[in-house]
Design brief:
Order of helices and strands: HHEEHHHHHH
CATH architecture of the largest domain: Up-down Bundle
Mean pLDDT: 79
Helix content: 55-70%
Number of helices: 8
Length: 257
Amino acid sequence: MALNATILDYSEMLKAEFSRRTQSSPFARLGMTLPALVLSASTCAGFLSSFACAQQPDRASTPVVVQPGAPGQPSRILPPSTKATLPPRSQADIDFMQGMIMHHAQAVDMTALIPSHTNNKELRLLGARISRSQSDEIKFMQRWLAARGESVATVMPGMPGMDNSGRPMSLMPGMLTPQQMEALQKAKTTEFDRLFLLGMIQHHRGALTMVNDLFNVAGAGQTADVFDFATDVDTTQRAEIRVMESMLKKRQSKERR
């Protein structure tokens, strides 16, 4: 009994001391005891935490598909089942890509002759750049056609291809004839340099004609991928034509001395 009384007295003493310290604190002016303050703070923190969680997006929810509106028009939220679709096909775009693959393939074949036919370092650098860029572009065009279920005709570069009916068709603009390709293969050193530069300038100008013809067809070359590719071909090959013309002028200048 004495032990219980001692514990009870000690408990009462602690309560009295706790009450005294609480009442002397700044929070006593607000009519709040420390336990009440702690409870209030805990409740507030819990409320803020719940509010913050409510503001967080549900990561498991389906992503929202938004279609931007035209200038001055609001955007539109589309159904979650909305899927991207390719732009409408243009036969002119398909013909351009198929034809340019064959056109590029002949240029790559021409550059493949350089290592064994000339020691001209400037020409070797030019050939390497043309081969690398046009090989990459061939891969792009093949992917573009495959994504649309279109086939890529396999023909020997420098030889006439076949149209959709299976009949032989004439060479595309700028492509070297079989006779020109044969002459290039037989030439060596400086004569090879001359024939290569003349032939590649002719080839590049043909590509510019193909780009121009594409854009002259109503509705052709309007999608972003075709437009960007065709304009890049035009810009790049114009620049390379200027380089090759400069190389020819230097060569002619040396021959006159």
